[in-house]
Amino acid sequence: MKIVLQTLLATIAGYSVAYFLSSGEILFDIKNILLLFVITGVWFWFFHSFPKARKPVAVLFCIAVLSGYGLAGIGYVTEPFTIYRMFKDILYCLTLPAVAFSVYRLTENPAVTNLTALVITALMTAYAAFVSVMLGFYSVFHAKFGSNSLTALLNTNLQEAKEFIASYSSPGQAAAFVLFLCVFACFVFRQFLIAGRQMRCYPPATGKNLKKALAFSLALILGCYMFGAKTYAAITIDTARYASERQAGFVKNSRARIRKIGQLKDAGKHKYRGNMALVIGETHVRSHMHAYGYERETTPFLDKAIQNGTAFTAPGSFSCAAQTDTALPMVVTEKSQYNKIAFKDTATLVEMARHGGYRVVWISNQQKSDIIGVIADTADETVWINTKTNDTYLRQKNGAFDEHVLTALHKQKKPRQKTLYVIHLLGSHANYDCRYPDTFKKWDETAGNRAEQLINSYDNSVLYTDYVLAEIQKILFGKLGVSALLYVSDHGEELHEHFCHGEDFFISRYKESPYMADIVKVPFFLAVSPGFRSKYPEVIANWKKNSNKFFTNDMIYDTILGLMDIRCQHYNARQDYTSARFGFPLGKMRTGRGKVRLEEVAK
């Protein structure tokens, strides 16, 4: 009876925390509540029965096996928390406390200090936090927290973290969650203080039992290690480590890579077509652009440019990945879903532009981070605008607006040599209502339900981006002598229910709703000067010819090289949208970093 009461109270507490992390509509599911009750009950029984068992090793083994396979089986049948998708992951997670409690046997030996008890408490706390993050993430996004989510977390900054919390919870919910964390921290601290006394209050084990415990602990640890190559925890940790090593290898190999590029025989053979520009958007969905058929007039500038014949869209444009840190490395390098080039050996857009005699200016309204920051810093001139980490969240409307890119452009002098401008916008990144000034509040961000408010805010941000692009084009095509400009976004956004994006979220859920495809439906267009259009009609003709083909934004690298007429062994005409040779069969095209067939989301 005591266990049942404790389980009931813990379930209510756990569900309340999950409720504050999401909405009542999403979470109120009796299957989820029952599953939480079962999990909690198993662990309370575990805590009560293990220390008193005559054969604790056997009890430990039975609990680990039955809990693991039992919970996975329940998940497979009922599908709460989509545990059936995480079968191996759940089994592996359940071995973590098994290891900790097998080590517990060591603490029954009088020769063992209280330090062991503290270590075990730390292990159990880490396990609880790990499971909480996993289930909490799913309760909000209905997708598992995987390696890509971890990579995105490692690459985020304080500003993005604050806006993320504000986007998916009200101030009251966020405050309640912070309060819960404080209470949990106090509880953990208390457990550390009394861990030694609590865990050594049982009779000492005999030498025989101690040997059994040691043997069983080693077996569990080795089993986890051998099984770990395909488990959830190992995948996330290894992927994060791989990302770090990949960046280090990329930087280390840069000199050798640049030296090889300098030895190419095509130097000096490139036709000068004028200065060029690549503008990279953020969280921009083409299905919310009037130029792509959206009912609201969110793109007046682009609409007019298309009518005047100075801008050309690509109807079948998609992102190669569903989050910034996985998409952009393939946008600005030779690496794509369609080649097997090692990332450390991949040429960058900056390196190839300089090989073609271009000076490169990189202007970013995003914060400097990960591999994109490394690539940007190799440009001849790099301007980081958004260096404040707190203002956007605290003041809401502040200096993070993309119009500050215009100030940076105005400061640029008329180039004396051919120049490539790379401009990275903050675009429509959540919070949407933080991305535009009040003068662009065309649709009321406080009207209707939450979904309607978010859509209104998002559409306002798209309208503002259209304005910024118009002003960027005026400066580039006027003062700075740019002849052609390419625009593409890193990824899109789900704008129906969840209002988010993410690699793990997209890959695990893209079949569930047609709205999920918006995460990879991005705008892609070419804007040209009148002189460029008349002088290079074949470029425009090829663009129009390719408009019935599909495009992923990891092809941008080759497309901009094609515009700059840099054609060498680091260029692929099949991935150049301005080439007569462009295109792959739809069946061979991919998104989601190559894990999702494009035809599945291009319907």
From TrEMBL:
Matching CDD domains: LptA
Example GO molecular function: phosphotransferase activity, phosphate group as acceptor
InterPro entries: Alkaline_phosphatase_core_sf, PEA_transf_C, PEA_transferase, Sulfatase_N
Any one of the GO BP annotations: lipopolysaccharide core region biosynthetic process
Subcellular location: Cell membrane
Domain Sulfatase N-terminal as annotated: residue spans: 275-566
Protein name: Heptose-I-phosphate ethanolaminephosphotransferase
